[in-house]
Amino acid sequence: MSIVLEGVSKRYEQQIVVNNLSLEIKDGEFFVLLGSSGSGKTTVLNIIAGLVSAEGGRVLLHGRDVTNLPTQARKVGFVFQNYALFEYMTVAENIEFGLQVQKVPKKERQLKRDELLELVGLVGLGDRMPRQLSGGQQQRVALARALALEPDVLLLDEPLGALDAKIRGELRRSLKAIQKQLGVAAILVTHDQEEAFDLADRIGVMSYGRLVEVGSPRDLYHRPQTEFVASFLGTANILVGQTEGKQIQIGPHRFELANEAARFSPDGRVQVVFRPEDLVLASSKTSLDCAPLGEGVVTNMGFNGPSERIRLELPAIPGVRAIAPVVPFGKQNMVIESSRTAEQAASLPLSVGEKAWVGIRRLHALSHPGMSFLVVTDGSLRSQSAISLGGYLARMAHARTVLLGVGDDENLLDAFLQDARKQIGSGMASIEVRTDRAPTRFAIARSIEQRPVDLVIVGWRPVEGMGLAEQTLQVGDHHLLLAAHPGARFEKALVCVASGEPGKDDVMFAGRLLRHLGASATLLNVSSSAPNTEYQHQQIERFMAGGVHSLEMFGVPTQIKLRNGNPQTEIVQEIKEGEFDLVVMGAPLPNKDGRFSLGGVIEGVMKDAGNCSLLIVRSHYHKNTINYY
What we know:
- The chain has 629 residues and is α/β, with parallel strands linked by helices.
- The protein contains 17 helices and 31 strands.
């Protein structure tokens, strides 16, 4: 193997930016690390190059452990996005620079320089200065300079990002041809999916420091193993279906099960993935030559050259939940993305507002992961609430669960965990028991770094401070449940929301959880003063009506309450009047330093909420406040 990474990790202050990443890259392979900005992919490249030190794990290049070696001893070639050429040197001098530093004889340097100029298509331009070259030509010089020292591996950090589309396409072809001709292993970092598909032998998809999935471009697109990759690569329609023998059932519709489908959850739920080009549109049900999904209305159309993109709204199918595209807040109809060729468009012209039947020609099924919980116990009376409530929720939601025991006394901790395991009981999708002798907040952070979860459940008493809750929210992207009563069974939930985008996330996660419990919900909006304008009043009414529709889409009966006054006072009053056993509130935005502070309304509500548990929901807007390099 040319490159081997074993459990590599890197943290900047409180944020882990590369999380226990392991990867093997073959000799001569062109590997692409693909991810959105902030996913940690550039940090991985810098760790391989030795520009950044790893805090854990090993880096091996052609069998050599280079983890602790300086950059110049690793034999890597690095091409940066901004070229990093010496402006006061000619093209030839730039290419020869590394050879000159290593005191390679002049004739040998010149011979190597001329070979590289020919290789990258710049013969005759050696005497020019970088400013006299186009962007594409400058990047070719940077590539030639990186190859001059005959590196064992080639590292490319978004080298084409600053170029226009046409030049990028031409340079991609040249880059792939040069890499194959030399046979050097290469890793390219990019957020451009077209670039990744065009260049890669294999792609590794990263998200928040984790390597989510690795595979060939074709396999990742047509047979993804995770919901994240299915929705991240291209456009995907994802529905929750049910297995019936060798078929998949989506409401009343049945589809043959693909042979390569993943294992399914014990209750038979599956995520069904079909790409826009896997759909067929027809004027009638009988005109379809594949299994029908339903009749939809065209809501949007686009044209991108080789294909026509069409978005349709279909009536909701009973018992079926749409994951992607996301159902618009407050609506129940499913949204489906379709694409078709010019020939197909000519045979059935469509325009916005017209109806068409939708059929599925091909689909892929993922094992439905359900939800994942982390239940924390230290053997105290406080943590009994987390164990009791966490076990109940995990059984009802069919969630994968990690039971984390924390404490200094190993024997006592084992006894706590045995009792906790018995208390949680059977009927779980899966349960894993872990122990950690570190302080609770560090133990939680380590567990989440190893395996991210949807929800962390910890015990809570109103007299305690919010420190642990704030620290738990600080790591990962999970939500937090503060369990206040060991015998609680959520039947009535108070969902406190402010109208706005983060509030939509609060509603949607509450729906995901409450749908498994048969609970009802009250959607509460508290205004510190009466709306100043009729528009503001209507905006709140529209938001609340949308929230009701969204919760009822999950099967959660919902009513609306509007209050004016001090938010803390009004929420506490509503809790007492409504006898709720769960309060759902959105996490505040982090401070400028990225830390959460739950003082104020949330802390005040919890101190006066009695035996009511609190679910703190993190909006996806919080992710944008964390800086991953």
